[in-house]
Backbone:
């Protein structure tokens, strides 16, 4: 396990080449924690390139400056990597990651039989329920989905929980700190619980 937690490795950091070299040379990496480092999209490309041939299982990129462009870079990596089990992308540029970024990530993960846990919390993702619902429907291994404070609406709840009804592996779906949008959302959740 390698943790570079809260080191502010941002665009001004001069040690990027050392980090890339370390990642390039170390094939035993299974868990990489880079959260709270102000990593932006321009450094993400080289970082991901350094991980492409690794059998990484846990990747934490939360609390950085990853936008929609970064989501595309990560999705390219996820299409190649089939060992990843857990991905944390929470707290990344609320308005710039967008629901479209979630779509790229989830489409890339749909064929990973080992993937079990994803966190998109604390981002503005209203309208992403369709993508999350489709991912739940397509991926039989997903166990945990964390969507705290992502501003889901009633249609998002319907799309997500209609697909949970038939999914027998999901253990946790964290939707705390979202405005339920009234009785309809609660009914979608209740129906899914009753049928699952």
Residues:
């Amino acid at each position: 396990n390698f943790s570079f937690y809260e080191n502010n490795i941002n665009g001004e950091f001069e040690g990027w080449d050392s980090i890339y070299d370390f990642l390039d040379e170390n094939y035993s990496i299974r868990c990489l924690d880079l959260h709270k480092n102000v990593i932006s999209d321009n450094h993400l490309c080289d970082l991901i390139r350094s991980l492409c041939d690794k059998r990484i299982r846990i990747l934490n990129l939360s609390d950085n400056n990853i936008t929609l462009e970064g989501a595309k870079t990560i999705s390219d990596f996820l299409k190649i990597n089939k060992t990843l089990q857990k991905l944390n992308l929470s707290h990344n540029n609320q308005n710039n990651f967008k629901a479209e970024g979630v779509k790229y990530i989830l489409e890339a993960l749909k064929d990973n039989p080992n993937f079990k846990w994803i966190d998109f919390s604390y981002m503005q993702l209203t309208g992403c329920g369709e993508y999350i619902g489709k991912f739940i429907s397509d991926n039989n291994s997903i166990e945990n989905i964390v969507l705290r404070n992502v501003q889901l609406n009633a249609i998002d709840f319907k799309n997500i929980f209609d697909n949970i009804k038939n999914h027998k592996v999901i253990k946790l779906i964290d939707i705390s700190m979202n405005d339920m949008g009234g009785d309809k959302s609660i009914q979608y959740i209740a129906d899914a619980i009753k049928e699952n």
